[in-house]
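Question: Hello, beginner here. Any chance you could explain the protein record under this note? Any guidance would be welcome.
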Amino acid sequence: MNALISVSDKTGIVEFAAALHTLGIKLISTGGTAKLLAEAKLPVTEVAEVTDFPEMLDGRVKTLHPKVHGGLLARRDVPGHMAALKAHGIDTIDLLVVNLYPFEATVAKPGCTLEDAIENIDIGGPAMVRSAAKNWKDVGVLTDASQYAGVLDELKAQGKLSDKTRFALSVAAFNRISQYDGAISDYLSRIQPDGNHALFPGQTNGRFVKLQDLRYGENPHQQAAFYRDLYPAPGALVTAQQLQGKELSYNNIADADAAWECVKSFDAPACVIVKHANPCGVAVGKDPLEAYSKAFQTDPTSAFGGIIAFNRPVDGAAAQAVSKQFVEVLMAPGYTPEALEVFRSKVNVRILQIALPPGGKSDWDNGRNAMDIKRIGSGLLMQTADNHELTLADLKVVSKVQPSTEQLQDLLFAWKVAKYVKSNAIVFCKGGMTMGVGAGQMSRLDSARIASIKAQHANLSLQGTAVASDAFFPFRDGLDVVVDAGATCVIQPGGSMRDPEVIAAADERGVAMVFSGVRHFRH
């Protein structure tokens, strides 16, 4: 057997090549890889010796040769192919080990120039990989160091690779080429005539890896699967480890993402309970138990069968409280042994652990999407993600009544929650907890009324609450509804042609009103 090795990432390659040599496999290699193997005292033949043609053009041309591609592409079961190899003095290549120039890593570096990017576009590597992958029945192709151990185990046990393994390696190889070409297309499609980069590329190429097939989709008659980004960010839901429980469903995952994104936005210990993609209870507290207890009070009815997320490790006390309700999914950065013991008997509860990024809470923003994509008929809508964070300095007080320090904190809390509630959204809050949530209504008035009704059903008083509206009040009637319910301060984006009318209404009702200057529609 002959193995051709040409790698940019040389992780583990010397050990792998040494093991191949021990198995009697002849080593052929290129440039830097050949030098590395020779320094390790391994017998290696340079590609230039095989092709009888030197590397040229600063290494741009070295493997683009019939003696390489003929050895990869010849079908061993076709006499004409084998006769052609013999006639031209070409040996078969039975194993190809290639990883590509680091294009993705290069363009991710600050200050990367177009010239840097172009010089890191691999030509010979993808060509060899495609040849070997096409001829998978006769050639094994490895494109990642993670494949070395399994291939060696099979070669040692059987002396060759099975059809199943070679086909799996071929699929992985074509996937890698697709990912590589997609990255190149995405990068080059953003280049503008002036050399600057457009925010949205001329062509976008999604690159996602399937994590699992799901039992069904949003409804039982729909089929579904779960995918992650090719390079997922730390702290993102797709990196979660499931510690126990039933298989996650499509709806579980969608709701879990909504809960996780919301709870990550808080600095203090927080708990978020989500039902049908909307937060139905959000609170902060001195610890997870207090945060959960406050969040659950908002809407115990909707919390039944909900998704619960914490931004702190769950201890035994919080676990005992949560275990008293029916919960579909529980997620947190970690769990104490006591907490896990509480749920050991509740085998259907899905418990997810999502590791904090290396930098801790301050790095959680890195797990957020930079872009949001929505599928429409035969097309996509793409936008930058709504990652705006409001601060006290951003607020503009427009009413005669000035909000107190406590009210300002409640307003910021309410605004943060409203960002994650489906539009139209009205959120009543007080003391670091939601008191009533109105979501997803065609009328802002109806959202306000629903939030009030939910508070009544939960036996929560809305007197002295802060209210957030995700978009401006087009008329004063929406303000009147929330003030009638008990609100004493309101935050809204502003920007309506009737802002003066709404501000006058706030002054007439004696409530404080601040403008955020930012709208948070969520559909």
Remarks:
- The chain has a mean pLDDT of 92.
- The CA atoms of residues 15 and 327 lie 49 Å apart.
